[in-house]
Specification:
- By secondary structure, the chain is of the alpha/beta class.
- The protein contains 13 helices and twelve strands.
- It has helices at about 10-15, 15-30, 35-50, 60-70, 85-95, 115, 140-150, 200-210, 235-245, 245-265, 290-300, 330-335, 350-370, and strands spanning about 55, 80, 100-105, 125-130, 155, 165, 170, 175-180, 195-200, 275-280, 285, 340.
- The strands form three sheets. It has a seven-stranded mixed beta sheet with strand order 1-9-8-5-4-2-3, with helices on both faces. It has a three-stranded antiparallel beta sheet with strand order 7-6-10, with no helix packed on it. Strands 11-12 form a two-stranded antiparallel sheet.
- Helix 7 (about 140-150) links the parallel strand 4 and strand 5 (about 155).
- Helix 2 (about 15-30) packs antiparallel against helix 9, helix 4 (about 60-70) packs parallel to helix 5 (about 85-95) and helix 10 packs parallel to helix 13 (about 350-370).
- Pyridoxal-5'-phosphate binds near residues 85 and 157.
- Pyridoxal-5'-phosphate binds near residues 59, 85, 131, 159 and 160.
Length: about 375
């Protein structure tokens, strides 16, 4: 049996007629940039997030950059973010001109350790970018409290967390700006690059829309210099179709995660779910001592896995200028050699999940024996 890590083809074929027909419509209407398909998706995605405003942009990395720019963050400012994320999060900070300040993660949730944030706040700190890693929201109650106390902004990296919630409330309730990616493999994925920002702050939404469109509201009346980072009409139309199915696909992910939990508990370390978090399982990440051998064993048996992420951000060559050592981020650095992401997607079947758990249950004792 082959179990793929994500399954973009099965996803397409399950809604092929609808997708093909909207693509045709966008072309017939020449609604390539801006237009009714974009407006419709922006409205629907804002409602889905229970927020006032959504602005479609070029990709998730740009969404983070545009959010920081709209908040006036730049040279001389510092922005706090977790040591374990995809590099896009910290790249956006540098691109805005600010300094990246990394914080270690919590050993159970893999999210930013909220107890370490305050020790990193200085008079230059302007924002925190929590990453809702693997689909589980960071502790937004604590982060909101810290942000209010120190009068700093929260830019939420929601690239892996479409549909997630915290303490029964939508992520948008915790402010200030939410940044989404619709990279094809994300829980809600486009057929190319796309991203969005979501906020309840109208002024910020207007600024971001202008900044993403060369600094203008009205054509050729450029109020300042911006960039070109817009969502295509075609991607918006595709996303609008897929958005209707998102909750159903999330339920498939959650069901698979619960099955993994139940059958792998005690054999490897299963992900910890924060009791206040609605986890949407973009990734299902286990921990094991024998990560390398387990990954090879699974591959030989047709099961694809991934590592998210193999090198903690502060340890990347890109950040060698910060002069960090592993001891600065003991939890993240320890996890990096132990984590393994199992197959997880919105059309994963019961048979696939069973095959993965059975294979791991058989392999793990064998690997332990090899060690002795
Ligand atoms: C995917 C991702 C991004 C970047 O999104 P793109 O659309 O690929 O630019 C940012 N942050 C995290 C945590 C991501 O997983």
């Amino acid at each position: 049996m082959m179990v793929s890590f994500v399954d973009l083809k099965a996803r397409y074929f399950s809604i092929k007629d609808e997708i093909d027909s909207v693509i045709q419509q966008v072309i017939e209407d020449s609604a390539f940039i801006g237009g009714k398909y974009l407006k419709s998706f922006e409205n629907n995605f804002a409602s889905y997030c229970q927020a006032e405003h959504c602005v479609g942009v070029g990709n998730g990395t740009d969404a983070l950059f545009l959010a920081l720019k709209a908040l006036g963050i730049g040279r001389g400012d510092e922005v706090i973010t977790p040591a374990n994320s995809f590099v896009a999060t910290s790249e956006a900070i540098t691109r805005a001109g600010a300094k990246v300040v990394f914080v270690d993660c919590d050993r159970r949730t893999y999210n930013i350790d909220v107890n370490l944030i305050e020790s990193k706040i200085t008079s230059c700190t302007k924002a925190i970018i929590p990453v809702h890693l693997y689909g589980q929201p960071a502790d937004l109650v604590a982060i909101r409290e810290i942000a209010d106390q120190h009068k700093i902004y929260i830019v939420q990296d929601c690239a892996q967390a479409h549909g997630a919630a915290y303490a029964g409330k939508p992520l948008a309730d915790y402010g200030d700006i939410l940044c989404f990616s619709f990279y094809p493999g994300k829980n809600l994925g486009a057929y190319g690059d796309a991203g969005a920002i979501v906020t309840n702050n109208e002024e910020l939404a207007i600024k971001i829309r202008m900044f993403a469109n060369h600094g203008c509201k009205d054509k050729y009346a450029h109020e300042f210099e911006g960039v070109n980072s817009r969502m295509d009409g075609m991607q918006a139309a595709i996303l609008d179709v897929k958005l209707k199915y998102l909750d159903k696909w999330i339920r498939v992910r959650q069901k698979a995660a619960h099955f993994y939990d139940e059958h792998l508990q005690g054999k490897i370390v299963v992900p910890h779910q924060d009791s206040l978090a609605t986890h949407v399982y973009h990734l299902y990440v286990i921990q094991t001592e024998n990560r390398g051998e387990l990954q090879i064993g699974l591959k030989e048996r047709g099961i694809a896995t991934g590592i998210h992420y193999p090198i903690p951000l502060p340890m990347l060559d890109a950040y060698s200028y910060l002069g960090h050592v592993e001891d600065d981020f003991p939890v993240t650095c320890n996890l990096a050699s132990r984590i393994l992401s199992l197959p997880m997607h919105g059309s994963i079947t019961d048979q696939e999940v069973e095959y993965v758990t059975e294979t791991i249950s058989r392999l793990v004792p064998e690997l332990l024996m090899d060690r002795i």
